[in-house]
Amino acid sequence: xxxxxxxxxxxxxxxxxxxxxxxxxxxxxxxxxxxxxxxxxxxxxxxxxxxxxxxxxxxxxxxxxxxxxxxxxxxxxxxxxxxxxxxxxxxxxxxxxxxxxxxxxxxxxxxxxxxxxxxxxxxxxxxxxxxxxxxxxxxxxxxxxxxxxxxxxxxxxxxxxxxxxxxxxxxxxxxxxxxxxxxxxxxxxxxxxxxxxxxxxxxxxxxxxxxxxxxxxxxxxxxxxxxxxxxxxxxxxx
Length: 238
Ligand SMILES: [Zn+2]
Known about the structure:
The protein has helices spanning about 40-55, 70, 85-95, 100-110, 115-125, 195-210, 225-235; strands at about 5, 10, 25, 30-35, 60-65, 80-85, 140, 145-150, 155-160, 170, 175-180, 185-190, 190-195, 215, 225. It is α/β, with parallel strands linked by helices. It has a single domain (about 5-235), classed as Metallo-beta-lactamase, Chain A, CATH 3.60.15.
């Protein structure tokens, strides 16, 4: 289901069983931007199909929020120029060098290359692990990148965050919307979700400087600005 959020912004919600994240779509007058690529070719292709149903052009650009499989492994089904920060590209270079099979997965679980939580969801999305194809993003930036889509902009900003080392938020100033991927979440370490109050505090401070009314998190409903900062305050006061 493709939801329209504003004149220019659409999104599909996350799905728990497959760990599919929210995908965003911003339609500029000249170019369209997809936010995150999906967890598989099937996920990305399904998204394009929903765009077709609304007569929306396929995205010419796709921005990645971080390197986790569920946000990136759909790249192989997209004919869009892909953009990420340098740390995300480095992580994906490692993933692209891996062999995907049952035997290999057993090794990755033992050595911590893949965590149990991810493996369980990957097996739902990929009945045959051999289907996994990891494509590498083409444009790499550090710090910040602003894209003029025609009549609207997307600002990709790399921020310290509690989830990963490589988080990028995508701020849509004209829509007053922020996509944070999973950057607001805790870090998955082994089988545990670990919060990092220092990194969360830094993340919250950076977000306070940005003008937005709604925030899209990777695996939940869109949140209002107030709800987002209330959630941060609760975690920081524990
Ligand atoms: Zn993640």
